[in-house]
Automatic annotation (TrEMBL):
Keywords: Cell membrane, Membrane, Transmembrane, Transmembrane helix, Transport. GO terms for biological process: transmembrane transport. PROSITE patterns: ABC_TM1 (PS50928). The keyword Transmembrane helix applies. One of its GO terms (cellular component) is plasma membrane. The chain crosses the membrane at residues 9-27, 100-121, 133-156, 188-207, 243-268, 288-314. It comes from Bacillus timonensis. Belongs to the binding-protein-dependent transport system permease family. Residues 96-307 form the ABC transmembrane type-1 domain. This is ABC transporter permease. It is found in: Cell membrane. The keyword Ribonucleoprotein does not apply. Gene3D superfamilies: MetI-like (1.10.3720.10).
Length: 321
């Protein structure tokens, strides 16, 4: 497994290099630049703007700009944000804990609800409960996350006043206190529920279909013929095989949830990577925008590796060569 992991990690290098070319090219073909989108020429000397563009190398040939960026990036220098006037690494370090907290809580909700609904629907297919779960899945696949977020804010924040509709913590609380962490959990609950519950549909359906398929296989018939309890058959024999598709998704969720948080964080005004990325696109903050995109690319490749490694843990019959 160690040799397999090393080979996969080395294989990420050319893929990340290719991703860097695509990311840089897409950023540069966007109209405007940080100064044209951020600074009003009416109250700023145009000569100063042109000097800043020259100083930052925006007038250099594209291949020169790319080589400078990718070599600095490889050395851990992600550049400086033109909007926030600080190093990108420090800026992301401030925002990413909120996004990771949101992703983990939403992932918890996704797997708990999809596991419970998938198990129930798989054990009792084509019954009323299965049909209700299927209806929920169709709604979850059809309704966009931003619509669900707006509806959730209207009912649970404005009408019922159960959850706050913006921010990540109540203003004025001392960091490290119980009230501080309780407030952070209270603020993350609603966006995490929206992000998590809207992602359960595919998980639930995959688990349900796998349970139904595995329940018809020969090893299950053999277990029943031997008099094995039905609960043991489902919880041990069938579930062990059916849980593999969920493990497949787990690796990809590392990047998917952070990427999906772009819309959710914007709707809930939640200060994380997603909101920062959308802001960087609007202000043409190239350094922030390209760093976050490369981060998501790396997480996608890393998540794929994690999923493959988890195969061998869940089912020892799967060997990684």
């Amino acid at each position: 497994m160690l040799q397999y992991s090393i080979r996969r990690i080395l294989g990420m290098i050319p893929l990340l290099l290719l991703a860097s070319i695509v990311v840089f090219s897409l950023a540069k073909i966007m109209p405007g630049d940080p100064f044209g989108g951020e600074i009003d020429p009416s109250n700023t000397d145009p000569k100063y703007i042109e000097e800043m563009r020259e100083k930052l190398g925006y007038n250099d040939p594209i291949y020169v700009q790319y080589w400078r960026w990718v070599t600095d990036f490889a050395q851990g220098d992600f550049g400086k944000s033109t909007t926030h006037k600080m190093d990108v690494s420090k800026l992301i370090a401030q925002k990413i804990p909120n996004t990771l907290f949101l992703a983990l809580v939403s992932l918890f909700f996704t797997y708990i609800f999809s596991f419970l609904m998938g198990m129930y629907a798989g054990r009792k297919p084509y019954k009323l409960g299965d049909n209700l779960i299927a209806s929920y899945n169709y709604i979850g696949l059809a309704v966009p996350s931003f619509v669900a977020g707006i509806v959730a804010i209207y009912f649970f924040s404005f009408q019922l006043n159960w959850f706050p509709f913006s921010g990540s913590v109540e203003v004025g609380l001392d960091e490290g206190t119980f009230q501080y962490y309780a407030s952070k959990f209270h603020h993350v609950m609603l966006p995490a529920l929206v992000l998590g519950l809207m992602g359960t549909a595919s998980y639930t359906q995959f688990l349900r279909n796998d349970i139904i398929e595995n329940s018809r296989k020969d090893f299950v018939r053999t277990a029943r013929a031997k008099g094995t309890k039905e609960s043991t058959i489902y919880n041990k024999h069938i579930l062990r095989n059916s849980i593999i598709p969920l493990v497949t998704f787990l690796g990809f969720d590392i990047a998917t949830l952070i990427g999906g948080a772009v819309i959710t964080e914007t709707i809930f005004t939640y200060p994380g990577i997603g909101q920062l990325f959308l802001e960087s696109v609007n202000t043409r903050d190239y350094a922030v925008m390209m760093t976050i995109t490369m981060l998501l690319s790396f997480l996608t490749l890393f998540g794929n590796l994690i999923a493959d490694l988890l195969y061998g843990i869940v089912d020892p019959r799967i060997r990684l060569d």
